Amino acid sequence: MTEAALTAAGVDSYLSKEAKQQPQWPDAAALRRTTDRLTQVPPLVFAGEADRLREQLAAASRGEAFVLQGGDCAEIFAEATADRIRNKIKTILQMAVILTYGASTPVVKIGRMAGQYAKPRSADTETIGGVTLPVYRGDIVNSSAFTPESRIPNPERLLDAYHVSASTLNLIRAFTQGGFADLRRVHQWNKGFSANPAYAKYEQFAKEIDRAVRFMAAAGGDFDALKTVELFSSHEALLLDYERALTRIDSRSGLPYDCSAHFLWIGERTRQLDGAHVEFLSKVHNPLAVKLGPTATSGDAIALAERLNPDNIAGRLTFVARMGAGKVRDALPSIVEGVRDAGLAVTWLTDPMHGNTYTSESGYKTRNFDTILDEVTGFFEVHEALGTVPGGLHVELTGDDVTEVIGGTEKIDDEGLARRYETKVDPRLNHQQSLEMAFLVADLLKKHRPEREEIF
Ligand code: PEP
Ligand code: CO
Hints:
Elements: H1 2-8, H2 28-38, H3 47-61, E1 66-71, H4 82-103, E2 107-112, E3 125-128, E4 131-134, H5 148-151, H6 156-177, H7 197-218, E5 231-236, H8 240-245, E6 247-249, E7 256-258, E8 263-266, H9 276-282, E9 288-292, H10 298-308, E10 317-321, H11 328-341, E11 347-350, E12 358-359, E13 365-368, H12 369-386, E14 390-396, E15 405-406, H13 431-448
Parallel strand pairs: 1-2, 1-14, 2-5, 5-8, 8-9, 9-10, 10-11, 11-14, 13-15
Antiparallel strand pairs: 3-4, 6-7, 12-13
Bound molecules: phosphoenolpyruvate and cobalt (II) ion.
Phosphoenolpyruvate binds at residues 73, 120, 236, 267-269, 291, 322, 354, 426.
InterPro entries: Aldolase_TIM (IPR013785), DAHP_synth_2 (IPR002480)
Protein name: Phospho-2-dehydro-3-deoxyheptonate aldolase
Family: Belongs to the class-II DAHP synthase family.
């Protein structure tokens, strides 16, 4: 019944297009059994929630809110533990507090969480010590262990991805709705950290927020709104068999939504106009994002907007610029200008991570904290010059004390990377670097939106 309605809504039109970055499944029947099963399971998110996020992204496109999207490059099934998920949520919420309080701006919070399991790769194989195996494509496809068995794409993993996403979302909902995220607990989130300047500064913010809250309470304020926060889920919609199988018809509107996450994005490697990813996502009604790298043109951006958002609905389409610090000031202006002049409603985010990856002398894939900040600064400068709106930040982070990104006040250096380098794909800001980044971005935002100062 539902499947018939989905087919009638045209969600299978992508099947006739080229889909890049898909695994070679060795057993088509086994894949089919799994995707059939996934068409029967309950949705992970609800269409009404996705609509609410679209409204908030629309506010960000107008400069009335700022988006913070963060989480792992690649989530790992075995790491979906209560501690690690809580640390990640806490990091995002702390960053959001810093941005909200520091720049007097509501923050739209989105995790790269509960579904970020499929990775695009630059090569199909990986060679170590003369042995060549299929590349690791994320836990939803195969395992990162370098053995022939673990690298075989296994469709059972699609079901695992669904279940781990469900348990992660369950924890997200519990933490954000069940009291943990209460703004009156901002102090507690900081407990147990060292005397690093970022933590000291956070503590100062927490004290000021406490005072403001106590003042409001004394004045008879109603604090129910402070008890909960909304944290939306997002991932790259890369593995189309999975995304299609989790697509449902919204009973209220009769429209298809991809219920694997609230917010879905198309990566830099799969954004071809005539490709399967653009085709599939043009048919679902979630808010969407497309990554734009330094080779993108304003013509590409305008054509993508016409395909993905033909009715020009604010909040439906976000562009995530990931140009690289050395290119953002040259490559981004003509794109933003073209989109502006075409009158397109778009939310602009900066991803200062993916254009700034390099291999350190000791051989680690890393990024430099100052370079990351420089790209964010360039992004703000471009929007300042064009009179457009810098709508948000997209970062790879973890709540743990890993050592994957060089720099920050901890001054992690090349040697220091070896201490705790855990990522399976891209290097992430650790907890402390994430808070530092939030303070610096709050300053940029405050400078860009000075009129907000008048509120106080
Ligand atoms: C990512 O976000 O992890 C990623 C692969 O990004 P991009 O498509 O921008 O390279
Ligand atoms: Co990444």
